[in-house]
Amino acid sequence: MPRSRDRLLTQVLNVAQMHAAEQALIAAGTDVHQLMQRAGRGAGEWVRRIAAGRPVTVLCGPGNNGGDGWVIAEYLREHGNPVTVVVAREPGTGAAKTARSLYRGAAVPGDAAVEGEVLVDCLFGSGLTRGLSDDLFELLACLARRHPHRIAIDVPSGVESDSGRPLNAGLPQSTLTIALGAWKHAHFAMPACAMMGVLRLVDIGVNEVPGAARVLARPSISVPAADAHKYRRGMLGIVAGAMPGATILASTAALRAGAGYVKLAASAAPANAPAELVVTSDLSAMLADDRLAALLVGPGFGRGDEAARILARSLHAARPSVVDADGLMLLRPAMLSGTPMVLTPHDGEMAALERAFDLPASGLRRERALALAAASKAVVVLKGPDSVIAGPEGELVVSPRASSWLSVAGTGDVLAGTIASRLAVHGDAMRAAEEGLWLHGEAARIVGSAFTAGELACAVRAAVEECL
Ligand SMILES: NC(=O)C1=CN([C@@H]2O[C@H](COP(=O)(O)OP(=O)(O)OC[C@H]3O[C@@H](n4cnc5c(N)ncnc54)[C@H](O)[C@@H]3O)[C@@H](O)[C@H]2O)[C@@H](O)CC1
Ligand SMILES: [K+]
């Protein structure tokens, strides 16, 4: 793929945006038939490689997703791979009818008894508007049981493309999902993204859609300038609270994510503080220091009145800040100073912030993150298996599903420390959030399984190395 399309292929579109993008291509001279050929043949090549000569069953529905299925089947037949189409519904669109007419292989009516190695699910794609009827659900489920490899084309049938909501209970698990033209939100939203197996994208020439969300991608991190020194590289101040263990984890990550100097304001030096961490008991002096590039407030903070006062005092210093954990439970609109800020709530903290900012606690996660970002003028990293980053101007970045081994105490502190370290380096809240979230996910990939938050924090260094 040409390098210029790399960034373009990170866009994530909803159904309306995808339709508009297709219409733009059609207006520029490509017809639906050509688009379907590009999509079907691109997906067909993936299927052919996976099938490697083993029998493939293609389940075709009535819409253009079914049309893709007919193209895939013909592509496999042309390449000598055994293929059978199961016709769940006859094609209803012009492009799908044409695709069917061009297929010269075997087709059987909706027959659940067909067996094979690879099932290609082209029953419904982004046009699904309601749950599968009982007969279609049974057909899909029976075929899925009879095929060890299950490839979903565009989105698995039964999944709502814009939300990632399954519209039927008990939908089969796919081993591979091939997105067509652009990523859809379902590819990154729970619970659908956990049903999709490996994700691949086929480029059909879709152009940039203004306002589209993006998938979190590997950031590019600069090495320190030739004349760098510890302060110019960014000094991060971390404000400790009642439980300094959390700030030690955050500091361990922050020391490895790029900041030149990490200072911890704590009433007493924690016993297990890393030697590189400078501990001060003078919070006022730390906040007044001109060299302070960013602040992290919240991990292990406590939720009492004293903690609330320290939070307000810290944010009053008006430095680029990351507010996490207990800090989020105490944050009030009046504490915001308009300086770059990143908020890193999990779902429970998000609900507390929504109460504090008088926002509805309903809607999709990405919509809730966008609403909080708009109300607070902060960048919101809504954490979870399907983390999203929302910016105050409506920017939206969705993260590929994170390692489930991250579900262990302390990993949130590591994320906060990583983002804060990046914020200290350059002061750009959106960029720091993206870099931090990517580094965190990559560190988890590097440490693998059954890791501790401390091991994760140490692996941030290796993750940074991959971005240089
Ligand atoms: N439009 C284009 O230019 C392209 C579309 N492509 C494919 O087209 C797909 C979208 O096509 P469609 O919009 O035709 O959508 P689908 O193929 O998902 O099918 C939608 C049709 O099924 C009906 N329907 C929805 N839910 C149903 C249910 N539960 N039970 C029964 N019928 C139901 C709808 O009323 C509509 O007639 C994409 O996912 C992608 O696979 C690709 O071929 C690329 C090009
Ligand atoms: K499908």
User: How many beta-strand segments?
Assistant: 19
What percentage of amino acids are in beta strands?
15-25%
- Name of the CATH architecture of the largest domain: 3-Layer(aba) Sandwich
| Total domain units | 2
**CATH fold-level label of the largest domain:** UDP-N-acetylmuramoyl-L-alanine:D-glutamate ligase
Bound molecules: ligand NAX, potassium ion
Structural class: alpha/beta
Name the strands of the widest sheet in spatial order. Answer: 8-1-10-19-18-17-16-15-14-11-12-13
**Unreliable runs, pLDDT <50, ≥5 residues?**
none
Q: Output the CATH class name of the largest domain.
A: Alpha Beta
> What is the distance, rounded to the nearest whole angstrom, between the alpha carbons of the first and last residues?
22 Å
In helices, the fraction of residues equals 25-40%
Mean pLDDT: 95
Over all CA atoms, what is the radius of gyration? Answer: 25 Å
In DSSP terms (H or I, runs of 4 or more residues), the helix count works out at 15
